Amino acid sequence: MLSNELTDLVEDICNKQCEMQNIEIKKAFDGCPKKLYNTISSFANQNGGGIIIFGIDEKESFDICGVYDAQDLQKKITEQCNQMEPVVRPLFTVSEVNGKIVVSAEIAECGTFDKPCFYKGAGRMKGSYIRVGDADMLMTEYEIYSFEVFRRKIQDELRVVGRADIDTLDQNKLIEYFAKLKIEKPNLSNMSNEQIMQLQGITDKQKPTVAGIMLFGIYPQSFFPQLSITALAVPGNAIGTMGENEERFLDNRRIEGTLPQIYEQAIGFIFRNTKTKTIIDNQGNRKDVNQYPMKAVREIILNALMHRDYSIHTDTSPTRLIIYSDRMEIENPGGLYGRLTLDDLGNVGADTRNPFLAGMLEVMGVAENRFSGIPTIYHEMKKAGLPKPIFTVGRGSFKVTLLNKTNDSINRYTNNSEIRGIIEFCHSPRTREELAAFLNISTPSYAMKNYVLPLVDAGLIKMTIPNKPKSKYQMYVKV
Q1: pTM greater than the 0.70 cutoff
Q2: Are 29 and 54 within 8 A, CB to CB?
Q3: Exposed end of the chain (fewer CB within 10 Å): N or C?
């Protein structure tokens, strides 16, 4: 950044009196901080990187104290960056603010294939960090593995299932699949069934794989009890709300079977537990319309099953489906895979976590496998006059939320504790970065588009500079 940009940033931080998702403050008045490794790692591992600013004393109400020696500070910061794997190359800026020298070190995001960035002295498991709000948190074993699986092209769907053998696969399902496959892929028509199963990832040296069991197993849950969907329908807008007869759940199912069976049963569960209205057109034709567009629902359920993580780290984690009175949530284990970010959803072809599963589901006629799922969901929700779907990435999970009302959907959705929390958080004016950090979302633009701006439109939050909505000084406050 330029010197004047650093000056503006320092003044902005001092006015707000807080660190942010992408901003870390260090005093550095009486020497270089000795352990910057955690912050360097977390910034290098997050989307967009981050900036460390030296010369502000957080403990003294963000007083600008200046740094002890700008040249020596840069040298020692670089030495610490050289202790990272991969090596980090900071970009320094020096500026004078109120007669004091401040220094910034911009830490760029590592390439996807280089993550996680970690401190070599602690090793990958104890030296890899992730940014959560204004804190640097040690990565979990699973978070580290999530980077490793993409970088090393680990195919968890092809894991051999130790207790299984060929007899645990449904031979009728296999025969039906072979018939479809030989029509779709003539090059395989002259091969033996054993060769086809090996090439398609159903087996590995005559032993069934995870993909084989989940698509063709007689009873997959005998090997993986939690590779299923737990489905709930609750009477209110939150779990724990009681119905008219003091019931906690309107419906409660564990949906099991092969992936195609789970998919169809999940759709059935949604049909049973959502409202349907009948429309008569001008020609007198009758049409039943569900409160959610079912094309969008089918895509979401299919994506959850096809793209979830099937590693040993998530064997005990089912996909969760919850139908509330004002929304529906589908959450599956495994965050976004590979190079995909929230902003990329629906705009670019994604890296595929489970290409063998996706390919077999395509042959079976269950999935198209053309990266059209997200655009279809957006299109169908808009066509139905409903709010845009909300996509959320947690630490090792991915959730889709659909709202089911047209006029008062946002007001109803504020009954959700997360959204209500945003409104209360804005009791004092908040920046885009602060709101993204509060929501634990690494991309401020996504947090604004899907969480904050709908509340602005609903009149629940307002801009502090309404005539300049894109101002870098824009903040958001509760009405």
Answers
A1: yes
A2: no
A3: C
* Spatial distance between the Cα atoms of 258 and 216, rounded to a whole number of angstroms: 7
Nearest to 213, CA basis, from 260, 164, 171, 175: 164
Using DSSP, state whether 105 is helix, strand or coil.
strand
CA dist., res. 427 & res. 478, Å (int) = 5
On whether the CB atoms of residues 29 and 67 are closer than 8 A, the answer is yes
3-state secondary structure 261-325: HHHHHHHHHHHHHCCEEEEECCCCCEEEEECCCHHHHHHHHHHHHHHCCCCHHHCCCCEEEEECC
Which residues neighbour 227 within 8 Å (Cβ) at sequence distance 6 or greater? 214, 220, 221, 310, 315, 318
The CA-to-CA distance between both ends of the chain, in Å, stands at: 35
Measured between alpha carbons, how far is 15 from 190 in angstroms, rounded to an integer? 73
What is the sign of the dihedral through the CA atoms of 234, 236, 240 and 245?
negative
Where would I find the H helices in 57-206?
70-81, 123-127, 141-151, 171-184, 193-200
Contact in structure between 196 and 178 (CB atoms under 8 Å): yes
Residue type at position 160:
V
Spans in the chain with pLDDT lower than 50: 406-409, 412, 414
> How far apart are alpha carbons 159 and 202 in whole angstroms?
10
Rg for the chain, CA atoms, rounded: 26
Peptide bond into 116 cis (omega under 30): yes
For the stretch 308-356, pLDDT in tens is: 999 999 999 999 999 998 899 999 998 888 888 777 777 777 788 999 9
Concatenating the DSSP letter of every residue in 204-235 gives ETTEEBHHHHHHHBSSGGGT-TTSSEEEEE-S
